[in-house]
């Protein structure tokens, strides 16, 4: 019984069908009304997130003051361990808002439900699961 051409034909049909379908529209997803609205710009997500004191795991805290230009969060002033850092928006592969300082010492990543502070040199977390006042628990909790 020779069926390799039939199997190849079936595999090609499946491959073509997957190319024809478009990815789901992120804006069409249903977010709870408490979630920040999401917009897209040049492959980058723009999340309407609050400024303020973010409470993180292990009792750590990070103060984030956001600066907007044309409704885009392009810079943050970050307070960490008694020091202040100016972080600029840096395009990320994932499209998530990512900010880093000019010296490359600090990186802040925004997710719709939390933030993450990383050491810019080693990429190790300095503060994880940082939530703004009044934010809900993570979707996985």
Give an overview in words.
With 141 residues, this protein is mostly beta strands. It is built from one helix and ten strands. The strands form two sheets. An eight-stranded antiparallel beta sheet has the order 3-4-5-6-7-8-9-10, with no helix packed on it. Strand 7 (98-100) and strand 8 (106-110) form a beta hairpin.
Topology:
Layout: H1 4-20, E1 38-41, E2 44-47, E3 52-55, E4 61-69, E5 72-80, E6 83-89, E7 98-100, E8 106-110, E9 115-119, E10 125-130
Antiparallel strand pairs: 1-2, 3-4, 4-5, 5-6, 6-7, 7-8, 8-9, 9-10
Summed up:
This protein is mostly beta strands and 141 residues long. Helix content is 12%, strand content 40%. The longest helix is centred in the first third of the chain and has 17 residues.
Quote the average pLDDT.
Answer: 76
Strand arrangement in the largest pleated sheet: 3-4-5-6-7-8-9-10
The total strand number stands at 10
Which class best fits the helix and strand makeup? Answer: mainly beta
Q: How many H/I helical runs?
A: 1
Order of helices and strands: HEEEEEEEEEE
- How far from one another are the termini? 53 Å
| Share in β-strands | 35-45%
Low-confidence stretches: 6-35
Helix content: 10-25%
Question: Main beta sheet: strand number and arrangement?
Answer: 8 strands, antiparallel
Shape: globular
């Amino acid at each position: 019984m020779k069926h390799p051409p039939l199997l190849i034909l079936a595999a090609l049909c499946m491959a073509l069908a997957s190319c024809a379908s478009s990815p789901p529209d992120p804006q069409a997803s249903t977010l709870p009304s408490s979630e920040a609205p999401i917009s897209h710009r040049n492959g980058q997500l723009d999340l309407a997130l609050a400024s303020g004191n973010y409470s993180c795991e292990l009792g750590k805290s990070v103060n984030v003051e956001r600066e907007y230009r044309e409704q885009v969060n392009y810079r943050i002033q970050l307070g960490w361990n008694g020091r202040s850092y100016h972080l600029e928006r840096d395009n990320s592969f994932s499209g998530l808002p990512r900010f880093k300082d000019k010296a490359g010492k600090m990186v802040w990543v925004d997710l719709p439900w939390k933030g993450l502070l990383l050491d810019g040199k080693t990429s190790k977390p300095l503060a994880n699961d940082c939530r703004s006042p009044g934010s809900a628990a993570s979707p996985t909790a």
